[in-house]
Amino acid sequence: MTSKDVLPRGRRMITRTVGVSRVIIALAVLALVVMLAGGTDSYTVPRDNDILLADGFFKRMRDLFAERAYEDAFSAGGGGGGGGGGMEMADEAVPQAPVDTSHLDSPPKPKVVEGWPKVEHSFGQVTAVTIDLQGNPVIFHRGSRTWTAESFNESNHYQQIAEGPIVETTIVTLAAADGAVLEERGAGIFYMPHGLTIDRGGNMWLTDVALHQAFKFMPGRDYPSITLGHRFEPGSSRSHLCKPTAVAVASTGEIFVADGYCNSRLLKYNAAGRLIRTIPQPPEFLSLQVPHGLTLLEHLDMVCVADRENMRVVCPRAGLQTSNGEGTQAATIQEPDLGRVFAVAAYGDLVYAVNGPTSPMIPVRGFTIDPRSETIIDHWGPQFENPHAITFCPNGSAMYVTEIGPNRVWKFSLAN
After folding, report:
1. Which DSSP letter does residue 158 get?
2. Which of 41, 107, 297, 325 is a good FRET partner for 319, with 20 to 30 A between their CA atoms?
3. Residue 33 has pLDDT above 60, yes or no
4. Is the residue at 4 inside a domain?
5. Residue 137: which domain range?
6. Domain tally for the chain?
């Protein structure tokens, strides 16, 4: 257990602010070393138009840490309303109970299953992976279509409607044992696939960033039973989506949609598809920038978000059992080596995440995160290039990661 676990909330904020300054200084020194060594021009980041590297990386990191420090001070000062608020009141914050870290002694570490798949595949950009009710991985890919600079105009309208939907099958079920293709479907439906998840009832939830829609397909059906958003119409109203990225479905039937590249918000629906909450909303002090992946920790009543361009994972209250606590400060995991987070998946009390190309000094790899103590507790993975999605088998026997650059699927076993 670290000192962070037992310090009162207000004192933790002061400590974190001091630490932030040290991190910024360290990053500046590293940047200077790189410049003196010949700059960063010699480094080429694998690029895809779905993976747009933000300009001014170090400025962004500095701004983000400053924003995080302000959020903590805001929370510690009672929301900034009267009474002085801010850092002056930090020492008066009510102490929190120490976080139980006994479950973090030996978190499962993913290990690559060598030689899987045993057969070669030729997929398009593999954007998502989930697990069906039989324990087999199901992927969502773009076939011969790619996301380019010409795919959307400045108002986010898709520019290649005339080409029609993707003619190849886009949804592929693979055998967990050897990776052989078990089933293919989804031809002639989608224009630019992105997110995929299968809920406990076997229903398939998919997002298409070109259509600006999210869909629910019941088992064996080729037509959606629920459609969210308007076809080819980007928007920010209650009934519109704009390049939605991911869906997470609770055991209660409630639906969370990450909306997405344009609106940078989460939308929560009831099981019938009626909007019941937008995240963030007042008085929620939370700013998202491209929420790219979602996962639910129902027993903790959290929905964790891969907040991609903010280079962090945030876990606001999901409000599955009660609305009490909605809008309170989200658990936030943001460390200098985290980079741009593309996907998250829950495993018990933990969240496993993968980042993508961010900076030559930040490796592309996997992370094990404890949202309760807001810390990264492990790093793992091979030399990824462009990981885009991650999922676990419900029984915890395996984990899968897909990449959008080399268009491949990794299988991992889990060992302590």
Report:
1. B
2. 107
3. no
4. no
5. 112-152+160-415
6. 1
Binding residues for Zn(2+): 194, 292, 388
Domain assignment present for 21:
no
User: Has residue 53 been placed in a domain?
Assistant: no
Residue 126 CA to residue 316 CA, distance in Å, equals: 28
Buried b (16+ CB within 10 A) or exposed e, 231-270: eebbeeeeebbbbbbbbbbbeeebbbbbbbbbbbbbbbbe
The 8 Å CB, 24+ separation contacts for 79-84 are: 79/283, 79/285
Q: What are phi and psi of 10, to 5 degrees?
A: -60, -45
Q: With H, G, I as helix, E, B as strand and everything else as coil, classify residue 201.
A: coil
Give the torsion through C-alpha atoms of 142, 148, 154, 159, to 10 deg: -60
Give the DSSP letter string of 209-228: TTTTEEEEE-TT-SS-SEEE
Residues annotated in the binding site, as ranges? 129, 142, 194, 196, 261, 292, 308, 388
Backbone torsions φ then ψ of 209, nearest 5 degrees: -75, -25
Farthest-apart Cα atoms in the chain, separation: 66
Distance, CA of 18 to CA of 349 (rounded, Å): 29
pTM: 0.78
Tens-digit pLDDT profile for residues 91-135 = 333 344 444 445 556 899 999 999 999 999 999 999 999 999 999
Binding residues for a protein: 142, 261, 308
pLDDT, the chain, mean: 82
Q: What is the CATH number of the domain that holds 296?
A: 2.120.10.30
Retrieve residue 259's tokens. 């909306």
Q: What confidence tens digit (pLDDT) does each residue in 285-312 have?
A: 899 999 999 999 999 999 999 999 999 9
Confidence category of residue 324, pLDDT binned at 50, 70, 90: confident
55 falls within a domain: no
CA 1/CA 93 separation, integer angstroms: 21
Annotated binding site for Ca(2+): 129, 196
The candidate with the shortest Cα–Cα distance to 389, out of 190, 123, 165, is 123
**Residues 329 and 75 sit within 8 Å (Cβ to Cβ):** yes
pLDDT class of 12 with cuts at 50, 70, 90: very low
